[in-house]
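Annotated sample (chain length 360).
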Amino acid sequence: PHYAHPVVLPSADDLKATADLLNNSVKTAIIADVDCPVTASQIKQLAAKLNAPLGWNLRSKELLAFDNQYPLGCVNRFYPTWQKEAIQQADVLFTINMHHAPEAIWDTEAKIIQLEKDGVNLGGRHRVDMPLMGTYHDTLKALLPLIQDKTDKQFGQDTAAAYDKLIQKQTAAATNISDEKGVIKCEYLIKLLNNKAAQNAIFTTDAGMAATLTAAYIEPTAERQFIQSAVYASEGSALPLAFGVASATENRQLIAVCTGKGLSMLLGDLLTVLQMNLDIKILVLNTSGTMATDATDADDTADCSLAKTDFAGIATHLGLVAQHVALFDELDSAMNEWLNTKGAALLDVDVTLYDEKALF
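Output written by the structure step:
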């Protein structure tokens, strides 16, 4: 079949002006949200030429976090102090398809270069000094030859060192096996999953807790893929996304990381797994029975608690292979059995809520 690929480019004058800004910059930071491996490679080339820290959106982790010399981390609503300081130190901030970034990102004195394929997104939420409309691959292909190689690596090295401290902080949080009540720490669970999952595994996640934990603890490789909506109000998306992946791939480990609330919204999807004979490993982060609030807004603390629910019991009655784990001593063997089950299987693990301060 023929796939149309319209080429949209900024004017030659705008490309030259952009190159001049980048070439004259002492400290450039880049943040991007792309889903094309070729475009991701171009962005990494640009960052390498400029010795620029490179940050990514949640959807771009598999492409931009792996083999990233100067990582700026995942840019999201948490916006940790070290990341904020790095962006505020930059004299040029180059954003690619990041019109949806948290508003705090734009609180900077840096010159902002914004590249969007849809012009309606240019300058819609923030000041922009160099607006560029163009298809990402084509625009970067035209821009790269105009960029001079920088020799000063200090800014990139400082940012990479701050990112390393974040990883150490996250690793420390994942070494705590359980809380004072003996409930398995969710950070430990996902770190364990990272260690046991295949190097070419595909992960789908619900929004919220599941997406945040996988972003922190599932390490990208050359072959791992992360598929998620990465937008709010899409809690129950892990299983529907996994259906699409299962129909399009073979011989790949497919893991759907669900929250208890997300799975409870779409319990009927368990029947679809059985009906379609889909080889999906379903992990449930079961925080049911725990007091939870949605405090994304300081003035909005809605009660989001879920009554105690036995998801493994429900799955078993439907005919799925399922296990419930509440004790740490049972977790390692249960996860091994779950991952090695032929066909679909569900692992329901009672876990704590995650600690934002420990992750970012």
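Annotation: Residues 31 and 55 are 4 Å apart (CA to CA).
Annotation: Confidence is low (pLDDT under 50) at residues 293-302.
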